[in-house]
Amino acid sequence: MRDFVAFHWRHYRRHPVWVPQLDGDLLGNRLLDLPGLLTPEHPYHQGARATHFLATRNGTVLGRVSAVIHDRFNGYHACQVAFFGFFETVDDQCVAQALLTAACDWARAHGATVLRGPGEYANVTHERQGCLVAGFEHQVAVDQTWNPPYYGPLIEGCGFLKVMDYHAYGVDLTRPLPAKVVGIAHAVLSRRQLRTRALDMRRFAADVRLIVDIYNQAWASNWGFLPVEDWEVEALVRALRPIIDPELVRFALKGDEPVAVLGAFPDPNVWLRPRWRPYGDSDVVRVGRLLSRRRRIDRFRLMFFGVLPGFRGVGADSLLFTEVHAHAQRRGYRYADVSLLLEGNAKVIRAVEGLGGRRTKTWRIFELTL
């Protein structure tokens, strides 16, 4: 497993855009209290079965891939899907074919009828996922994947077809919002249809659970959705608390009842980006650099926006983003990455474009019938 993780460091050596996860996120780190997604002890594996492959030639690792049967996903969607993830390879069709054939054979042997990917482990809405197919030059925001342009053609060369695209949009926060958006926000407030509040750090864990509750209701019909579990909530709390800006996470309320939430987070990749020095890229040094400079992050990723059924179309999106935009300008944020947006979610895409967003990246999910 150490070779599995080490491969991406060699594969992307000195690449100016790529930003890896912490090694501890994958292999575990007691000092940083990280359980390690690739370890058998991680709670992810209570609801999924996973295996991992390395492709080697003359003792040199040329690629890697995981294969997963996500039992909870298949039970929720009444399907027999397997996923491939952590896909990395040199530019060689034979290597890609060997890796994906191994994943196919394992998936078929475990009863799957479809193999879908790439992802982290799976293509579940709250996992990092997708093969980048456009926007390779842009910075990688937190929990986004990056890969060379040849990955898509290699996967297609193995017989996989597109099943879904996700998009990212960039918003220049130094520019004023369109007058229409501001007007809608003012109208919502003046009519007292909704009120808002920021994340309350004094009741941080309770507010995170409130976010998850809205998410589980608002996103239930989205492609790839799976309800978030308690252990995932706890992991989210632990990961976000050190860097969070509570004014970037805002609730819209009808009376005392939360009906919508917008969640944006300062992008830790600004300081987690590798320095490619022997002393600059260990987990401890990268985390230390982030914590010491977390107040000097000038970009954020808008990771989720959800409105409960029955409260859509009342201007909650305009209201919440107008308030986040005002805080961003006061605080000195200059850029927002809004992602990942399903290609079929036309209402959300139109709303983001109405905020001045421009498409910057596209990730693709592929599928093969077994």
How does this structure look, described?
- The protein is built from 12 helices and 12 strands.
- The protein has 370 residues and is α+β, with helices and mostly antiparallel strands.
- The chain has 2 domains: 164 residues, Aminopeptidase (3-Layer(aba) Sandwich), CATH 3.40.630.30; 192 residues, 3-Layer(aba) Sandwich (Aminopeptidase), CATH 3.40.630.
What's this, in brief?
This protein is of the alpha+beta class.
Which helices and strands, and how do they pair?
Blueprint lengths: L1 H10 L11 H5 L20 E10 L2 E11 H7 L3 E9 L3 H17 L4 E6 L11 E4 L16 H7 L3 E12 L6 H12 L4 E4 L5 H15 L11 H11 L8 E6 L2 E10 L2 H4 L10 H11 L5 E9 L8 H16 L3 E8 L3 H9 L3 E12 L1
Parallel strand pairs: 3-4, 10-11
Antiparallel strand pairs: 1-2, 2-3, 4-12, 5-12, 6-11, 6-12, 7-8, 8-9, 9-10
Helix pairs in contact: 6-11, 7-8
Number of DSSP strand runs: 12
* Number of alpha- plus pi-helical segments: 12
| Protein structure class | alpha+beta
Shape: globular
Largest sheet: 12 strands, mixed
| Relative helix content | 25-40%
What is the CATH T-level topology of the largest domain?
Aminopeptidase
Count up the domains. 2
What is the arithmetic mean of pLDDT? 94
Strand-residue proportion? 25-35%
Name of the CATH superfamily of the largest domain:
Gcn5-related N-acetyltransferase (GNAT)
Report how far the terminal alpha carbons are from each other.
27 Å
CATH second-level architecture of the largest domain: 3-Layer(aba) Sandwich
The low-confidence runs, each spanning 5 or more residues with pLDDT under 50, are: none
Q: Specify Rg, calculated over alpha carbons.
A: 21 Å
> Which CATH class of the largest domain?
Alpha Beta
The succession of helices and strands, N to C, reads HHEEHEHEEHEHEHHEEHHEHEHE
